[in-house]
Amino acid sequence: MRIRSIFIIIIIIAATAACLVGCSSDESDGAALSGRPSSGRALRVDLNLYTPGTIPQGIGDPVKMASELAKEWRAQRGGRDIVFQQLINTGSSEGEWLKTQLIGGMAPEIVSMNAEVAWPDVDKGWFVPLDEYMERPNPYIPGNERWIDSFKNQALVGAKRAPDGKLYCVPIDIVETGVFYNKDILRTYGYEEPPDTWDEMLELNARIKEDGTIPFTAGGNLASDWGQDIIFELLYHDILPQMDLVASRADAQGYLGHYLEAAEAGFLFTKGFFTRRDPRWREMNRMLREWREGWAQELKNTDPDRLFLTERLAMYWNGSWFVRRMATDPFIDFEWGVGYIPTITQETSPYGAGTPATVIGGAAVQLHVTNSALLNDNVEDCIDWLMFLTAPQNIERLASEALVYIPNVVGAKTDERLAPFQDIFERQYCAIKWLESMDGEYKKFWRRMLDYYLNDGCTLDEFLVMLEENFAAWVTDHQDDMGWDFEAMEKTWAQREELLLHELEPIP
Fold it and tell me: Where are any strands of DSSP class E within 172-294?
């Protein structure tokens, strides 16, 4: 047994040494970037879909611009080589592979992951705070005095600060959703673009469906998941300032506005909101089911990409990433455009504010500097590479080649085919992402029951009862959490109680 243990240890040491040598060499899946000898250990960089050799959307040539930029950076700076090392996909960026690498100080120096995924671990020293570096000038942008000022959407950057107030990521680009539409089909019904109001959309959906074409659907669970978030804001718009009991950070207000955090939603539930006493909540779920009449018959396993590409689908709610498919597929022979979700007016619902539908997207590729940079003494190299990458002339080339996301840098041009998404992103952000606010079993239960309800498995009242029970268990499970400070919210509630309770039906 002891001999076997020693043998295993030897194997692990040998494998670790091989990994370190391989990562420092000029070859990693063909991604080493310089013929010159490295001045030190190579930087290992994960650039998500910008990683050389990646084929975004599975169509077109592999991307290679990051390799070109790395060569230019090395030539200008005379610094380290860069080896592109995309994260191992273990189901999500918070998977066991990355955490194991971070614990061992062996992760790539720069990794791409959502800021919110990193937040629970920032106290472990796995990620380098970037605030002091953001205050420096970016030498690759003439006239720049503070790197942070070079980012286009400042509120979005502010929203990526961790709960400790520090910024651990560089949000280099933006992802947004939009409604791709077949212009040829819509013109048949007298429309040049999707309708502006909810009633018009429902009427058009019914006409298209009657003729045997699918009016509207979305990728995956997008319509039923984020769809309820869109409807929620359109129906609660007028009272959201009063419902928002914990104000967002000042530097994130322009992006988050009156966004309801999970704890706020839980507190408001205890007061009667998001129950059968809440008429807007009932209306939201009723309208979602009414909207579903125009979607593909089968929600789970339908291939909406194929439906749209073969002209059996009139309107397709999807992300900016789908532009690459539409622009690259040689078999598309119809005109298409990009619009957005219509507004809800009082002609449709007494709670409709008539305001524009809010956006649901946000930061796309979010780059973090890991503890490997500290251990390998190359933090300054990492920062310099990120500054070079986010110079407008460079991020523009990176984003234009991939044709998936919008550069989040002042002065970087957006490809005209992505321009509609830039316009959509100028709208207010959604008020909440309901399913993302839940966790564990409660999120899964809601998702299952939502599918059940939308496919006529239960009535609206039955669905609302199930949601209430799920909400109650969720709130109970979090009542002792430090972040769920109901006592502080109670003070603000007391000042607004009379106005807010007026929105609810009396307790039966």
Answer: 173-175, 177-182, 214-218
C-alpha 125/C-alpha 166 separation (Å) is: 13
- The rounded distance, in Å, linking the Cα atoms of 365 and 47 is 8
At residue 7, does pLDDT exceed 50? Answer: no
Q: Across the beta sheet with 362-363, what order do the strands follow?
A: 362-363, 173-175, 406-407
296: pLDDT confidence band, cut at 50, 70 and 90?
confident
Mean pLDDT value across the chain: 88
Among 28-37, 80-89, 201-210, 459-468, where is mean pLDDT lowest? Answer: 28-37
Residue 462 has pLDDT above 50, yes or no: yes
| H-run or E-run covering 83 | strand 82-84
The whole-angstrom separation of Cα 234 and Cα 459 is 23
Q: How far apart are CA 224 and CA 300, in angstroms?
A: 11
Number of Cβ within a 10 Å radius of residue 127 = 25
Domains of the chain: 25-175+363-425 (3.40.190.10), 177-358+438-501 (3.40.190.10)
The CB-side HSE value for 136 (13 A sphere, CA atoms) comes to: 12
Asked if residue 360 lies in contact with residue 230, where contact means CB atoms within 8 angstroms, the answer is yes
pLDDT for 1 equals 42
